[in-house]
Prior knowledge:
The complex is a heterodimer. Chain A is mainly alpha-helical. Chain A is 73% helix and 2% strand.
Amino acid sequence: MTVCNNCGVELEKSMNFCPLCGDPVIKGNFRDKDAIKEEKIRKQQQALSDIEKLDQFQKRKLVWEVFSIILVSGIIVTLILNLILNHELTWSKFTIAGCIAVFSYVSIFSFWPKRIIFHFTGSFITTSAFLLFLELWLGKIDWTLSLGIPILFAFYFIALLTLFVIKMCKQKGFNLIAYIFIAVALLIISIEGIISNYLYNRIFLSWSLIVLVSILPLSAILLFIHFRLRRGTSLKKFFHI
Amino acid sequence: MKEVQTPAGLIPENLWLPLDNAAKIFPAILNKQLTGVFRLSVILKERIKIKYLFQAVSLLENRFPYYKVQLKKGFFWYYLEKVDLPISVEFDNNGICRAFKTQDKKSLLFRVLVDSKTVSVEFSHMLTDGFGAFEFLRSVLFIYFEKCGIKLPENLRVFKPGESPSEGEYEDSYNKYFQKDISPILKVPKAFHLPFPLNISPRFEVFTAILPLDSVLETAKTFKVSITEYLVSVYLFALQEIYNEQDTWKKSKNKSMLRIQVPINLRGIFPSISMRNFSLFVMPEIDLRLGHYTFEEIVKKVYHLMQLETDEKLINKIITRNVRNEKNPVIRSTPLFFKSLMLYFKYYSLGTSLYTGVISNMGKVKIAPEIDQLIDYFAVVAPPPNKVLKVNCGVIGFNNHLVMSFGNITSSKDLENKYMSVLKSHGIKIQLKEL
Lengths: 241, 435
Ligand SMILES: [Zn+2]
């Protein structure tokens, strides 16, 4: 009779591994060489995967460092060139602002690779700041605050919402297209609202409503097809009350 | 139980079942800690011969199609849908009553766990109650011992591989025995809750005590009550002590109604052979505003309440009340998300605040003399209690062992200790076990 040293069940003589817990069968009191070898390999693999994980972070850090060097030197070079050629700060403002914006994008994506919400807020803030700076340098702030940033915000917000909804979907198919259509309709409504508010100081919707009215039934049809075609799900089962 | 044979193929290939009346609440409230999973264990006298156990489980693989299901989200309700996954047999080293993956992830809602001399089955309460789990375990044991070469009686009433399940096995008996006469809902005052602090995660612990069945029975007899009634009375008595030990401030704040939820197997009252949920609760109580109770007074109160509440007519009323909610067209056609929210709040505001403790007695079990002599004892662990209830208790009898398992999510063993000292004071010898 053989007994598994790990889980204590009785094994067949012919068994080399315990079918319950996967432990190698040990004859006598000491673990046999193969088992020890195997465990070593397993531990090594574990260690390896740790290094791999570390590597990914380091890779991202490397990319970030390379980008920083390129961007900083770009800023310095354009600054010096601009000063030498024009004796004052003129066109380099735009390249510098552009470089700084790119730099913040790269930083956000390398340090929070999995935080979509950070990506969105980060790039929203960066892009808004970039627009603001451009206008500021060009003279007076006109459309950025009342037009540019609200539209940007609507875009980022709706995109984030859509991504979230898509992520929550268990089964992906026609429903995604429907959600994206709805998101586009929402975005168009927001854009028209913002523009009309900018132009006439009141919210006035016309063409975006037509878009909405044509998109909604389309989405409804897509959703219906999706739920109808969900594999193995009959309507009766899904909608039973 | 009568065997109703139906031709194979009666179970449709794309089987799906709406959750039964008792299971409907679960998807809304379950999480990693509140798992809704209970455990039934059998401790054999010899180590498990693992080869035969695997064989036994795989032979029964297709005998219980209504358990080979996963939880799916419908638009109005959750439902169970057939899934082709093998029954998992695992080494039992991952904690007791661990949650099953739900939320549309592919996973069965029950498992078989093995450790040395113990075979346990863990079922999500969405599938069945203690009865269903016991019948399943019993069938596994029967085939296991047959494989081990034990001569077993031919005519033993167990589920055998190759049979096709009868329709009665997966019927929703709540709906079947629902009667039209509708009674007003009784409003009951909220109950006292144990004032103990919760454990940090993983918070669920089980404390097991083995009592000699004969001496418990004898003690119960001296009080002229059944074992369940006796154990409930001890529970209430221990709770009364805990209540009295509170300081005055807490006493004034806490409720003074001690109420125990006692599940009863309705298959004993109705001719159901359902392998899904079919139990209900009676709730014996004492109100401490009326003063201190002696043990004898508690026993008397419990006896009368249990007799009254297990009356068939009253049970009919309770079923009606439970099922009526389900039949309400407004509730039925509320989309799932809102319904889940409603159930969640209803559960915490009404469901659990009404009782102080749970004691679930599966009674004395036996399989067949040939098998019984190879078994040491059985144990049952109720699903981890929620953060209001904090402690519950599962009881099962076998041979001369009455095994009580207290599931506890607090850092206090006060209730268990008081319970044991009441038993000791009645002359019952207790053996404690680490499970
Ligand atoms: Zn093992």
